[in-house]
Specification:
The protein has about 325 residues and is of the alpha/beta class. The protein has a single domain, classed as Metallo-beta-lactamase, Chain A, CATH 3.60.15.10. About 15% of the residues lie in helices and about 25% in strands. The protein has six helices and 16 strands. It has helices at about 50-60, 110-120, 210-215, 230-235, 250-260, 275-290; strands at about 5-15, 35-40, 40-45, 70-75, 95-105, 135-140, 145-150, 155-160, 170-175, 185-190, 195-200, 220-225, 265-270, 295, 300-305, 320. The strands form two sheets. The chain has an eight-stranded mixed sheet. The chain has an eight-stranded mixed sheet with strand order 8-7-9-10-11-12-13-14. Helix 3 crosses helix 5 (about 250-260). It is globular, with a radius of gyration of 19 Å. Bound molecules: zinc ion (2 copies). One zinc ion binds next to loops. The site of one zinc ion has 4 residues, from loops.
Length: about 325
Amino acid sequence: MSEKAIMKLKFWGVRGSHPVSGDRVTRYGGNTPCVEILVEGYPLIFDAGTGIIKLGQEIAQSSKDDSSFRAAIFFSHLHHDHTQGLPFFSPIFDPNFMLNIFLPNLSSQSPEEIISNIMTPPVFPVAFQQTLSTKALHCIDGTQIVIIDPVNGHAETSSPFRENSFQDKIVVRTLRSFAHPQGVLNYRIEWSGKSIVYATDIEGYVNGDRKLVNFARGADILIHDAQYTDEHYLGLREVGNTTQGYGHSTVTMACQIASEAQVGQLFLFHHDPNYDDATLDQMRKLAKRQFQNVETAREGLMLRLYNNAGTHLSRRQVIQAPAV
Ligand SMILES: [Zn+2]
Ligand SMILES: [Zn+2]
């Protein structure tokens, strides 16, 4: 008897800093960050890099006969590579689309001002608020959790101490990190005993980021920034100065967090735009020596999480599907 997946995860954009194209990046992809987690048909989208453009086309296509359809977008932070796809996310122009947007409260600006910075004339012909979809803007700062009903898309923020009352709800926890310029939010998505942690645009600390280790502890999947090789980070390469302090991690830093937090599977993410497929292959090999169950995130990769046997951790329950 085939079992229904309780969560699906798909990578739509895995490249950091700026999009790239061409023969040298065909296997891993060149779009900037966008990750989709599908729960009971409800898409939770993490970041709106250029990867969100294709996702938008798919959502629009699969919902074209629906009188209403929904999604939520969570922004890790507001650097250009995490927002530049939003104006081209076609569902926002559809009057039947209902969207929850969660923005990190990393400055004194209102949510309306923040979103206007991404999409307003003269940088884009149409202001975000003029688009036809129904939108709810929420500001979050790392002290709340977000509770979402996957059936109707209703979202509310809550104290993280209100446990045991979230049955049948998606819980999204937040961790504010200062290990990136202007700060960033890490997310932990929990549903029906499964959990995925999205931790991009962070730089490791000596002996590992202890808050992140606790935040990610026991997660089924950890998606972690791994932009640089150790040599590049330290400035030991013939080309390129040190990238220390840029706010991004090495493969070694990502593996250390995965190992200490005892996660089920690690995905290396936010690849340097100058790295070709062969370099990313090499980085994966290096990572394998440090954390056995590691993969390099690539565009189109989809995973399904199953809840068989009632076990909590799912190292063997993560089924890797071929890239599409
Ligand atoms: Zn980035
Ligand atoms: Zn950034």
